Amino acid sequence: MPENRDILERMTAAQKEAAELILHARGILAEIKTGHRDVVTEFDRKVQELLIKRMSEAVPGASFFCEENSRRDSLEAEHVFIIDPIDGTMNFVRGFHHSAVSVAYMSRGQLTAASVYNPYVDECFTAVKGRGARLNGREIKVSALPLSESLVCCGTSPYDPELAESTFELIKKAFIAGLDIRREGSAALDMCSAAAGRAGVYFEPKVSLWDIAAGMLIVSEAGGRCCRLDGSPIPLDGSKSPVLAGGALAVEDFLALVKA
User: Fold this and answer.
1) How many other β-carbons are positioned within 10 Å of the β-carbon of residue 59?
2) Degrees to nearest 5, angle at CA 59 with 57 and 61
3) CA-to-CA distance for 105 and 77, rounded, in angstroms?
């Protein structure tokens, strides 16, 4: 089997190939999945199919855990790719050019390679376990600043409207405690903003594993911390979870804010 670095190279090549489908998409039609905010397009499916094909070529016999329902294999397999073909589908549908192709590789429950690619600005965030995190090949690190000197990226868990009141209460607290709020519609890219030190933290009350798996490794390898909003570890079992990620000091400040 190829090493993690080789897998990452194949992963990023596949993402850039898939990005051509996104950049040249025309006549985008959204289909409703679970509700009017939860949509899918033919391009999500095409990108996912291409990524599955290319990663199967790279690691024959690999398993897949993907957003679109065609593949949800066991996460306990020796070789698993966790794929969000277009993270930020609503942005994609509406022409708000802030979406990403997110792929993570996991072996026996451990994330070991990850890549998040934003084709609109040609930014590729990558990580290999034990080898650090990079943006277009350049090493990145999380911010060492406290929450009071940080931007805060957030998600609003739009598929779970019952969380709206508590979510916006927390956003208000974060706005008061930090410099300002950023809500841009892609969990994967928000995590990468935290990994690169652009934001101090990113948080969201409920996300799916494919939204954050790649970002978790990238943040960790950038020297940051990823946890739930109560400070406990994020499960890698496929369940939805709260997420908080960023520099250690800002994360600690945010956890205190949650408890306040």
Assistant:
1) 20
2) 95
3) 11
